[in-house]
Amino acid sequence: MNALRIALLTHSVNPRGGVVHTLELATALSALGHDVTVFAPAVPGEALFRLPRCRVVYAPITQSQAGTVAMVGARIHAFGQTLMEYDAWSFDVLHAQDSISGNALAELGAQGLIRGFVRTVHHLDHFDDPRLAAWQRRAYEDAEQVLCVSETWTREMRSTFGIAALTVPNGVDVARFTPDENARDAQIRRHLGLDGGPIVLSVGGIEARKNTLALLEAFASVRRTLPGAQLVIAGGASLLDHDAYARSVLKRAAELGLSIGPHESVVVTGALEDAAMPALFRSADVLSMVSLREGFGLVVLEALASGTPVVASAIAPFTEYLDDTTCYWASPTDVVSIAAALLCALGGRGSRTDFDRAVPALLARFSWAASARRHVDVYRQLLATRALTIQ
Q1: Rounded to an integer, what distance in angstroms lies between the CA atom of residue 194 and that of residue 116?
Q2: By mean pLDDT, which of 148-157, 217-226, 270-279, 342-351 is the weakest?
Q3: How far is it, in rounded angstroms, from Cα 303 to Cα 284?
Q4: Pairing of strands 35-42, 118-121
Q5: What's the total number of domains in the chain?
Q6: Which residues form the Glycosyltransferase subfamily 4-like N-terminal domain (predicted)?
Q7: Which of 166-180, 269-283, 298-312, 328-342 shows the lowest per-residue confidence on average (mean pLDDT)?
Q8: What is the side-by-side strand order in the sheet with 35-42?
Q9: Statement: residue 331 has pLDDT above 70
Q10: What is the CATH number of the domain that holds 199?
Q11: Does the pLDDT value for residue 242 go beyond 80?
């Protein structure tokens, strides 16, 4: 069949789940023979943390916007301007991975400058600001087709918002994330000040949605049994403002007697270079993914592919694809439950993760090639429906 000309739009150049999804999908679609362009907003000098195997176009923005609303508005505008410069009408598929790019496409659609667009909803946030809430709503309401990365969010979009969404899962790169150690692992451990005690890893920075405060409380309990344990909080390059929550977490760490820094009990890395992540997963003794809300939780698969056990929230979407053979469960609202699950994982107690059979079988279900093929099926169906509507 004819190759498609596809534009994938992502809101940031930083390593966030939706951005990773975009880049991996772009590479997989390109491998299928499609002509893919990734569009991302960037200030002068910025570049994507990882380059996909396709064309990349940066939508230029300035660094002077103060506040979240102004920042989002500037990115929507930058997307719109750049898409028109690159003849947005000429793409067979325009696919937004977030509310920012979705609003740019919704505006172009309202002006009759594009035929329509696809939107992937990874998850939805709660916004007190009415402008941000309206932007989030418009980005899925105006889309021709909404996709979700989990059945949980597909059902949510249908039942709560009346949107006929389809599920198209994530994948995991098992060539990039492996249990095989290399010299980089020791370098990362030295650089971050990981001292050999059991390492609890959390990925995604300090956020209320990531449940960092409850994890910190649980980790303090773990330290009473394993005094050499370290908590590593990696990443956190978000466009949203999490400063107030982060300050409360750091304040609580001090109250719990947890020191922060390299070689200390809590290591907060901030954004790391992309090449460091596989080594960090392998260096951890357990990944803690006790979020209160997730779209899918891609880092769970990345950790398991790296040979690292996972403690996951006993809520959807994790319950869609994990079970007792592939993770340790914890109630995200119960600090005692989180601490107990971490101790079980670190001590190898309870039902151990089955890395011989269950984990390989799980990883085999999620490939970027399969995700790309499913996307192409959706795209072609959308184009066929659009053609019938025009006739």
Answers
A1: 49
A2: 342-351
A3: 9
A4: unpaired
A5: 2
A6: 16-176
A7: 269-283
A8: 55-60, 35-42, 5-9, 93-96, 118-121, 145-148, 166-167
A9: yes
A10: 3.40.50.2000
A11: no
What tokens does 129 get? 């600001």
End-to-end C-alpha distance for the chain, whole angstroms = 22
Are residue 151 and residue 295 in the same domain, yes or no? no
Q: Is residue 177 part of a domain?
A: no
Q: Name the token pair of 144.
A: 């021709």
308, 341 Cβ separation under 8 angstroms: no
Residue 178 in domain: no
Beta bridge partners of 40: 58
Which structural domain, as residue segments, surrounds residue 333?
183-365
pLDDT at position 291 over 90: yes
pTM of the model: 0.91
Together in a domain, 124 and 40:
yes
Residue pLDDT, tens place only, 3-21:
999 999 999 998 888 999 9
Number of residues that this document lists for the chain: 391
Q: What burial class does residue 251 get, using C-beta atoms within 10 Å of its C-beta: 0-12 exposed, 13-18 middle, 19+ buried?
A: exposed
Q: Are 219 and 258 in contact (CB under 8 A)?
A: yes
Number of H helices, E strands in the chain: 14, 13
Question: 16: left (phi > 0), else alpha (psi -120 to 50), else beta?
Answer: beta
Q: Which of 70, 300, 274 is nearest to 184 (CA)?
A: 274
Nearest Cα to Cα of residue 234 among 305, 283, 177, 173: 283
* Count of beta carbons in the 10 Å neighbourhood of residue 60: 12
Average pLDDT over residues 211-215: 97
Q: For the segment 141-152, what is each residue's pLDDT rounded down to a tens digit? A: 999 999 999 999
Q: Is residue 325 part of a domain?
A: yes
For residues 240 and 72, what is the distance between their CA atoms, to the nearest angstrom?
10
Tell me the one-letter amino acid at 317. P
